[in-house]
Amino acid sequence: MIKGIPVVLYERTEIGRDEFDHPVYEEHPVTVENVLVAPASTTEILDAVHLYGKKAVYNIAIPKGDEHEWKDCRVDFFGQSWRVISFPQQGIEENIPLDWNQKWMVERYE
Questions:
Q1: In 3D, which of 73, 108, 76 has the Cα closest to residue 88?
Q2: CA 53 to each of CA 45, 48, 96: distance values in angstroms, whole numbers, following the listed order
Q3: Rounded distance, CA 12 to CA 9, Å?
Q4: How far apart are CA 45 and CA 39, in angstroms?
Q5: For residue 63, what are the contacts with CB-CB under 8 A and spacing of at least 6?
Q6: Model confidence at 109, in pLDDT bands (50, 70, 90)?
Q7: Phi, psi for residue 94 in degrees, rounded to 5
Q8: What SS3 class is residue 40?
Q9: Sign of the CA dihedral 48, 26, 36, 110?
């Protein structure tokens, strides 16, 4: 049976603007259970660099029914921090036989 791991997602809430009128965020950790983690393929890494200028390291698959906002958020797993990049690949929940219907790419977060 395929089983995911718990990851810590840092949801962001805008709390104001800086002197350049860019949003300032506060992060709130929440644990999301049963997230699949797999290394990104060479093709996916190259595509991410060409499209986003960022190097994808892992793909994460999010469980069906998850309501969290993942775009540009920080996630922790394997004892390290990662930043969610790109847009999700998402399928129709009823047409996907397993427990996951979204796939995101993550890059190393420094």
A1: 73
A2: 10, 7, 31
A3: 9
A4: 10
A5: 4, 32, 33, 34, 35, 99, 100
A6: confident
A7: -70, -20
A8: coil
A9: positive
